[in-house]
Amino acid sequence: MGPPKQRALLALLSTHRGTVVGPSQIIDGLWGPAAPNTAMNGVHTYIAGLRRALDPARRGRESGGILLSVAGGYELRLPLESVDAPQFVQQFAEARRLSAQGRPDAAFEMLGKALALWRGDALAGVPGPFAALERSRLREMRFSAAEDWISGMIAVGRSEEAIVVTSEAVAQEPLREKLRWLLMLALYRSGRQAHALQAYGEARCHLREELGIEPGAELQDLHARILAGTVDDGATRRQAPSAGPTLVQTPSPAESERAVLTRMGLSPRQLPSRARMFIGRDTELEQVCALLGRAYPARGRATPIVAIDGRPGVGKSALALELAHESADRFPDGQLYADLGGTGECPTPPFHVLGRLLESLGVGRADLPVDLDSRAMLYRSLLHDRQMMILLDDAVDMEQIGPLVPQGSACLIVTSRRPQRGLVARYGAHRIGLKPLCPGPAAELLGKLLGGEGERAAVHQLAELCGHLPLSVRITAAALLEDPYTSPEQLAALYKDPTVRLDLLTVAGDDGMSLRASLTASYRSLPNETAHLFRLLGRVGLEEVGVPESSQLSGVHSSEVAARLELLADLGLLERIGAGTYRLDDLTRVFAIECAEEEWVAPRPSLLRRAAKAVPVDGELRTG
Predict the structure, then answer these.
(1) pLDDT tens, position by position, 591-604
(2) Residues with Cβ within 8 Å of residue 408, at least 6 apart in sequence
(3) Most exposed: 34, 180, 459, 481, by fewest CB within 10 Å?
């Protein structure tokens, strides 16, 4: 078929067989935006080369009967069976159609024919933008067809065969969670529960190493059901009829959950467990209970919305769950929960969140709208007359939250690091700006978590060294309970060094129980200029800072610095102590210094001169 570009042209024309492909489309497909001035000459050369290869019997300059020159471009005339790619696409679509019509045997047979067309990767070694896109499209369709085919094998009890096929597919597409899900199910159906759990562990390790994320909800749900021995046979397995195999679409965990709830006449109850020993938020609980008491049971009122924000480790999620559980009896139609992943590297888009929530509300996966606005409208319609609670944990901003705001009788609770002022301005949300616990409740929480052990003075000192943050208090209690040889007094002595304290305030293997990880999540979300200011503040060790000092320190106009300081305060990396005045606590300062050390190898004299000029006290720099 000639040189690489000529083979790329054949791929383009054969994919569009029976239609006219214009010269500009050919140039874009072969060269892209970097096409040379001589590209059109190259097209003519490759067309001539293809004609010689495809139709050697043609005479002279005739087009022949296969590759024709027509008005507007070129047309390749070949029967469908001459080109495997469109044949595969057609057969895959036909299999889906047959399955939808309730003809699983025919669908399964058609899938087998479609997959049998494959020989290695599509368009292997063919260059150009079109080939790259087409290669990706066909690969995605191939694995979608394979997943349908494997689901059919598992459904009729051919799990051992499915294990071999799925293992090979996972080796080629290790990040494809549906394949991992099918492999776990096939292993479990074959009586290999331990191997199914091992497959989950391998999937989790791979996703964390490659992408830094945890497995999706469907994988986690199947893992939990395998551990509990509650995998629903009826949802994923049927006996094969004598005529041949039956293709059964393996339902998602949300669909399985919905089927079970419907069968039992129950409403969704998705709230995670609340924290043990919840202390010190009586005022906030009373305010929200009063708000809900005004809103319910009367219908027609505006949707009550509670927005909880605060610094890392202050207990936003714990308060939200306590509120939700305490108020659950007000919402007989159920409670929905979604982790929006705002402090992770990849927050969950509202499109995907709505898909999960709609499935929980009874919408089948095949019936989900394909665009965000339609999903949001359906979501609001379904919730309008239902007394349900929706808890959205770890949100980012209004762009993410807006499509998830219900109407009517539902109640919404949102947690986030940044204040969601848009929720207050647009919907009249009740905002709770959460602060650290008061000294008494913080010490009481630590004491009760320790079972009443430890000297009262040492417990109070530890609570103070934890900054009265519930997260730090709980980590400290866990450390003391794990190590019976360390007393509260000994740990308090270690905590007096802020660097050591920041190192110790973590639970190994659980980023959700690590103060440094929480600070890192806020720092990672900062724009470059604001992150630079944060590192400056840590580097010079200022105890308190205002707009004038920060402006001189960074060499930036005061209006820009004011906005950056506000963002740092919104994310909990600074504490507001007055109008335009902020404080950097000792643990956050240690973290800021660590971040600064990654940028600077040694202090810059010009930086220290600006810092000394910014805050002179008796001729010396005031430091923490």
Answers:
(1) 888 888 766 543 44
(2) 299, 303, 380, 383, 384, 385, 386
(3) 34
